[in-house]
Amino acid sequence: MLEAVVFYILAAALLGFGLLVITRTNPIASALSMVGAFGALAALYALLQATLIAIIQILVYAGGIMVLVIFVIMLLNLHEEDLKPMKARAGTVLLSLLAVFGLVLGPVFLAVFPKGNWKWAALTNDFGSIFTVGEKVFSDYLFPFEMLSLLLLAAIVGALVLSKRKL
Amino acid sequence: MLSGENIVKSVSDLLHQLYAMVGLSAFKGVLDPIVAAHVMFGFISVFVMFLVWMERKVSAHMQSRIGPNRVGIFGLLQTVADAIKLTIKEDIKPVHRDKIPYYIAPIIAFVATFAGMVVIPFDKGMVVQDLNIGLLYIIAITSFTVIAILSAGWSSNNKFALLGGFRSAAQIVSYEVPLVLSLVPVIMMTGTLRLGGIVEYQSQNHWFVLYQFIAFFIFITSATAEANRAPFDIPEAESELIGGFHTEYSGVKFAMFFLGEYIAVIVSSAVAVTVFLGGWLPPFAFLAFVPGFIWFMIKLLLVIYLVMAFRWTFPRLRVDQLMDFGWKVLIPVAILNILVTGFCVLFFGKGV
Amino acid sequence: MNFEFIENILPLVLALLLAMAVPTALILLSALLGPRKDNETKLSPYECGIQTQAIPGDARHRFNVKFYLVAMCFLVFDVEVVFLFPWAVLFQKMAWGGFLSMLGFLGVLAFGWFYLWKRGALEWE
Taking CB atoms and an 8 Å limit, are C45 and B158 in contact across chains? Predict the structure, then answer.
């Protein structure tokens, strides 16, 4: 019961912040709303006992990605007169939301709901803890983990190529 | 025997009797944390005021001045007077500000650092909540400060504030990496992220500063840089950027940034004490009759004194020196330290 | 779902709420207590009288791309750190196998770091 109340509060906060992100014209207000959304999402993860993921959500997204987003906003050099025409209209937002729910999430719901005989896997006590996740990553998923270093290397090279005019 | 654990136990017994008297025993799971959070909040407020006074006294001492000595004995009430003054100051609202981010920024700056204090153990069992991923939690939650700084810099709509905010953010993210990397060797040895557990490990072995002096050095240096304190205070360099990101802030909103900076110093010093200096443990076994939280406070004040001494003894770095030092010295040294520690632990067995 | 878990994070949530409430209250209090004598000069941007902005009241100008590069490098190393923590916790259990797998991971990233240095991305011009 308590869990459900917390879940709905957090889900409402997440959706609310998400709406703010796409409806604000002030870029920094959008960015701050996105931080709020990340915070709500992290809390949802924590509610699912996935504490490590919750922490990563805050550390990487709120701490790292947000800084990058704000720096990129500065690179774009947007002024208010450039942004005014881009303001989202309520109708557009509503239509796109309906489209997302109707076309993307609708089929999922239709496929899942009629069956009605879901089985919830019982959670072990240490589900989502840093030990369990670590054990998975460094045994079953060791190869993807090593490949990730190559992906990060590609990110480094890409950032460098984008930002340095002459190499 | 007087110890943090006993104090916590007797206080909570007293509280539980109080709940029973007013018939709220059923809610003690909620009421206890509320009380704990308030106690921590009160402690932090008083301690920050003391630290501001201490910093002024330390700087005065180093510059052969007297420092604040008018309000209260030894000027101890100076900060209280300042706090009251800042609260009743005019609330200046710059015309070109972005309203909401401008107001939210000081609040985030304060919340982000204060939230870190919740998992710091002052003594065995004397902690608001000893999370089992405590160390990672502190790192994550304090990374919100950079958001506060960026939104303050942007929403002030002042070119010095904007430049200061951006430089600050660049500096914080550059030093976050060595800061976090310096903690990894310790976790490799203890195998836990719970701050209480890290201290317990040190009670069976030596303090980590003996094994991991390099990590300790990297941690203190990067923590100082993260708090934007001298000698790493380029983002706030008065001579070129006025006040940096908080140029347009005055009165109580400025006080929030100021408080946030001091709490950041407390949090990082407390982590340094817990992780590297044995937390509540006495330095020698025969001194164990002194309660743990007193040892913790002594160590905490010593580390904070060290950080303050940095500020008044080192000249300010240039921005390119600052970036070079972070990326080209601290990060490779921290990574090498991890690998060397790993090798030693495996080669010489557990506990090095 | 156990109540115990919510009880575990409850102190954190309460501390956060308290920490949010107090500054908000103080800011409101000071707005009530403080004097209010606005004038145009007082509310103008505090820029020592140097008005070099193209548009008055708009201090935002294009920033150097080096900030972007710093943020990007930070992000890469941040992700690396995220993987270091679970590894460090399990380190003694995994022993040499874990050590070697992290050596490979860090080796590739060290190469990236070295590349950044050689290309001059770490210089702050």
Answer: yes
Domain ranges across chain B: 92-348
Three-state SS across A81-113?
HHHHHHCCCHHHHHHHHHHHHHHHHHHHHHHHC
pTM for the model: 0.89
Query: What's residue B208's pLDDT?
Result: 86
| Predicted ipTM of the assembly | 0.85
What are phi and psi for residue B123, nearest 5 degrees? -160, 170
Among B80-94, B152-166, C45-59, whose mean pLDDT is lowest?
A: C45-59
Under an 8 A CB cutoff, do C79 and A60 touch? Answer: yes
| C36 contact A CB<8A | no
- The contacts of residue B87 (CB under 8 Å, 6+ apart) are B251, B252, B255, C26, C29, C30, C33
Q: Tell me: the pLDDT tens digits for A64-79?
A: 888 888 888 877 776 6
- Is the Cβ pair C35, B87 closer than 8 Å? no
Model confidence pLDDT, tens digit, residues C35-54: 777 777 777 776 666 665 55
Q: Vertex B72, ends B71 and B74: CA angle to 5°?
A: 95
Residue of A nearest to B151 (CA): A28
Number of neighbours of residue A29 by Cβ within 10 angstroms: 21
